[in-house]
Amino acid sequence: MWWERPVLRPFRPLLPANVLDVVVRAFCLIRSRALGGVGRRRGRDFERLFYGACHRGGLSLTEQAGARTVGGQQSASGFWHEVDAASRSIRHVTHWELKHLSAPVAKNDLLIFNGKGLEFHQGSDQFVARVPLLRFLLSGGAVEGEGRQYGALWGIMVIEPDRFPLPLVYEASVRGAAEWLSPLDVARVKDLVAWACRPLQVVLQELGDFSVAGREGLRTGPTAVRAARAVVDIQARLGEVVLDQLEEEWPGWVDETSESTWGLSGCQGSY
Hints:
Elements: H1 17-31, H2 39-57, E1 61-63, E2 85-88, E3 93-99, H3 107-122, H4 126-129, E4 133-139, H5 145-154, E5 156-159, H6 166-173, H7 183-196, H8 200-211, H9 222-249, H10 253-262
Parallel strand pairs: 3-4, 4-5
Antiparallel strand pairs: 1-2, 2-3
Helix pairs in contact: 1-2, 1-10, 5-9, 6-7, 6-9, 7-9
């Protein structure tokens, strides 16, 4: 499949290979809208589908639903924040929020998830605190425009069914999709889209620079706000272009990937 192709020079991958595989499979699952049901059962089935994607992608989770730590680290305040999924390696820590809602993701969902990340980061020991923390919000429903902008500002990678996720826009581009884009759009993907998918530590470094006289960063404050708005526009425009071209080159790849992942989930019913 397209995400298994090598990265073209002079680009660099944005995500580790196993995390990329999980993001692709998670997107395909929600894009195909294969999961029915209502209430608590739908939420539990959504979690099992995601865990199946992690198993297939080779991402070993250190925490699953009901956990109160991220990568074994507790919150700084002592609050027992609930965690849906997390992983930890020497290269990266991932923190996942799973929302399979009938309504759009609410503002408070994003605020709470962001706050949890800050809490777990401050509560980490110094070794873990230096490992890049990648954060993902996976939603079976829509995320509104302000939510997408908020995600870009804070480096939260939002995965929803009706928008090609920003990390996949980037990863597809550096694996050959750049040939379908103009040189200016390729530069925007390499710069702005990659920026929107940055680890939490980079976000905090930016804020630190913005708050100290003489250390203003290149993309902080009003500049960051403009960049986040541009990212949302880029996703709406280029995401559809890249997704259409991928479907033309690999017909049916979304449904095929969703079906292969579904079989590992243990959910009732059939795909």
